[in-house]
Amino acid sequence: MGAIGVPIAVAANRSFIAETATMTVHPIRLTGLVIGVPQTYEYLDKMQDRVVRFVTEHSRISEEKFRELMFRTGELARDIGTVLVGRDAVEVGLIDEVGGLSQAVNYLKTLIAEGAPGPGGLH
What we know:
Blueprint: H1 5-10, E1 16-17, E2 22-25, H2 38-57, H3 63-70, E3 82-85, H4 87-91, E4 97-98, H5 101-114
Parallel strand pairs: 1-4
Antiparallel strand pairs: 2-3
């Protein structure tokens, strides 16, 4: 899971990650030719700030830790960023727990039994 995968994953009320699944945290980048004008860099900075703010508001990771993972060098071949495997994503606070479909269904059953409201407060 990379790029847009991290914001999508943290948008859930409860998130699960398989033991062997990976999440790639890296800065926003463009593919193809980009004309190096200040407006382009400003636009990318603003977009990246929005992504950082969204992820940190919807998970337990701090902005400092998320940016550290995003700009870490030497971990990805010829690139910057961090690959988190299963439990690592939970330990840094991006994902709530290690588990698959079975754990997610059990969690959903618990919510239903407790009469918890669904998305948007609907029952």
